[in-house]
Amino acid sequence: MKKRTALIVGLAAGVIAAAAGVLAALGFLPAIAAELVAVVAFPAFVIFIALWWNAKSGEEDIPFIGY
Amino acid sequence: MIEYLLFATFVGLLFHGIHRKVIARVQGRPGPPIWQEILHTLKFSFKQTWIPKTASQALYVGIVFVAIAIWSGALVVLLTGGSILLLFGVYLLHKIVEHGMGLSTGSPYTKFGAIRSVISAASELPLLVTVVAIYFFTRSLSIADIAAYQAANGPLLIIAFPAAAAMYLVILSKMHYGPFSIIEAKEIVSGNLTEHFGVWRAGIEVAYALKTYVLLYAFVLIFIGALPFWLTLLAMLVVLVSLSFVCAVTPMLSPYDTVTIQSLATGALVVYIIVLGVVMG
Questions:
Q1: Whole domain around residue B232: which residue ranges?
Q2: pLDDT digit string (tens) for B161-210?
Q3: Which residues, at least 6 apart from B167, have a Cβ–Cβ distance to it below 8 Å?
């Protein structure tokens, strides 16, 4: 997976969960639906954001790998 | 909701750090700083990440998502005052997660952890009997109703002390470095966690932080009652520190002794329920 893809998926999951919370607070979405969205989106948010900052950008030094 | 999940993750990781610190101080060691587990999780998230060649890729990765999702769901159940049977269901799903995590990698160490996870299924029995005991008093399994019952009649910690003791045993059996932590014992490296490294391990640390937060929160809600937010956190901390003391002074049991003690606790609670049934009709 490309670094950019991981960022997009992670951010999308976070934005969807936050948006569901806002919509529920405004009364446009049942609270239980917003909570279900958060439960499904939160793991994707955590994992993909971590995969994003973990991924190499492709411009690192070549490490010393021994003689 | 996502902000509460992030908060619960942070507090859960902090609780893990406090747990390690208390154990170390009781054992006469300085111990790590209390934010060590937060740093630990961040460290794992920066470590090199890949999937072992022997692993079942879908299960190996998917189990991390499931682990976070089920404890997020459990937190929702608590916050919305849902049924404690749902919490019991999440606890059972966690057992499947532990087992799947161990089997997904192909490593013999993780498989040993997975098998020990199945052996320690006896830890669910006290929880089931606790649920029944609570029903005897409150006539409802809804957390909201249980909180209302306690507001009217006093905490179940006093009224149904054996049930609280059994639930305490259930939480103890899920604590790191505890007498029942046989699935991640050092003689099998790190048990079912051994082959999950990098981002996958960071995800599991997040799930376990949520699990600790949920179990402590559930104990306070079910046996002490609905308290103001900061008082609830304080009560959770007190329960955690008491658990840490037990973990610090108790050696890890052998797998068979683990099952024996949990089964004996269940047996004692069954007798308590029979007595309750006779006394209360």
A1: 2-280
A2: 888 888 898 888 888 888 888 877 777 777 788 888 889 999 999 999 99
A3: B126, B127, B130, B218, B219, B222, B223
A50 contacts on B by Cβ (under 8 Å): 45, 199, 202-203
Residues 3-42 of A with CB under 8 A from B: 14, 17-18, 20-21, 31-32, 34-36, 38-42
Other CB atoms closer than 10 Å to residue B33's CB: what's the count? 12
Interface A–B counts its CB contacts (< 8 A) at 68
What Cα–Cα distance (Å) separates residue B134 from each residue in B161, B238, B268, B269?
10, 22, 15, 12
Distance CA B127, CA B130 (A): 5
For residues B107-136, average pLDDT: 83
pTM of the model: 0.91
- First-to-last alpha carbon distance for chain B, in angstroms, is 42
* Cα four-point dihedral sign A14, A19, A20, A21: positive
Q: Which residues pair with B72 in a beta bridge?
A: none
Cross-chain Cβ contact B1/A43 below 8 Å: no
Other Cβ atoms less than 10 A from the Cβ of B139: the count is 9
How far is it, in rounded angstroms, from Cα A37 to Cα B255? 39
How many domains is chain B partitioned into structurally? 1
